[in-house]
Amino acid sequence: MSLFLFLLVVQAIVAAALVGVILVQRSEGGGLGIGGSPSGMMSARGAADFLTRSTRWLAIVFVALSIALAALATKATSGGTTSVESTLDRTGPVQTAPAAPASPAPADDPLADVTR
């Protein structure tokens, strides 16, 4: 269970980083142009390339962690006494509604109480 918890925390960190990297990018695919030099890694083009690569690798890690967590969750539930089942297949205690108190018999004319 500790491996599952560790991978879950790592996936939460990767998801937060992925959201941050995506929000930093401009909609045209370029970065924000962080940095002062017009050439080099932190130019507008260098930042865009870095952010694009970061997005790609973070997405790959996120999908891989999702698959691993799903496999671990399925293995954990099928190995024990409980198994994954449909909600429709579950049986449980049936609760019935309490009996309503007897109400007086309705009048013959439903509009008799309406004043005009």
Summarize the structure.
The protein is mainly α and 116 residues long.
Mean residue pLDDT: 75
Helices and strands: which structural class? Answer: mainly alpha
What multimeric state do the chains show? single chain
H/E element string?
A: HH
Number of strands: 0
- Describe the biggest sheet? none
Describe the structure in your own words.
- The protein is an all-alpha fold.
- It has a domain at 4-8 and 32-76.
- The chain is 51% helix and 0% strand.
- It contains two helices and no strands.
- The chain has helices at residues 2-24, 44-79.
- Helix 1 runs antiparallel to helix 2 (44-79).
- The longest helix is centred in the middle third of the chain and has 36 residues, at 44-79.
- The model has no long low-confidence stretch (mean pLDDT 75).
Keywords:
116 residues; 51% helix; elongated; mainly alpha; 2 helices; 0% strand
Produce the secondary structure layout.
Layout lengths: L1 H23 L19 H36 L37
Helix pairs in contact: 1-2
